[in-house]
Amino acid sequence: MNHIIYTDHALLRMAQRGVSYAQVERVLQYGRKIYHRGALIFLVGKREIRRLAGFVNDIHELEGLHVVVNSECVVITTYRNRATVFRVRS
């Protein structure tokens, strides 16, 4: 992503949770995309760790990191949750 826009809320949460801009960029680049409750969530889980372990340096530091983006592709918030399992409905 060339230019990422962040809400004030996202910047506050990133600071509180120790999430860097570089980590957000990497999650947006390598993370799985899930639509949930009208938002797009990018996340790096165990599946992505296994797939990218030999190709992306320090991918393990992103495990459980979620980046929530709205319909205008603005980052709304970030959080870590290693236990979250989303089920896609058909």
Compact overview of the structure:
It holds the Pfam family DUF4258. The protein has 90 residues and is an alpha+beta fold.
Give descriptors for this structure:
3 helices, 30% helix, alpha+beta, single chain, five-stranded mixed beta sheet, 90 residues
Describe the protein in words.
The protein is an alpha+beta fold. The chain has helices spanning 8-17, 21-30, 46-52; strands at 5-6, 32-36, 39-43, 65-69, 74-80. It has one domain. The protein has 3 helices and 5 strands, in the order βααββαββ. A 5-stranded mixed sheet has the order 1-5-4-3-2. The longest helix is centred in the N-terminal third of the chain and has 10 residues, at 8-17. The radius of gyration is 13 Å and the shape is globular. The model has no long low-confidence stretch (mean pLDDT 87).
Number of domains: 1
Spatial order of the strands forming the largest sheet: 1-5-4-3-2
Number of helices: 3
Shape: globular
Rounded radius of gyration (Å): 13 Å
Largest sheet: 5 strands, mixed
Please give the number of β-strands: 5
Give the averaged pLDDT, no decimals: 87
Listing every helix as H and every strand as E from the N terminus to the C terminus, the arrangement reads EHHEEHEE
Distance between the termini: 29 Å
Portion of residues within helices: 25-40%
Quickly give the structural class: alpha+beta
Report the portion of residues in β strands: 25-35%
Low-confidence stretches: none
InterPro entries: DUF4258 (IPR025354)
Protein name: DUF4258 domain-containing protein
Organism: Microvenator marinus
Pfam families: DUF4258
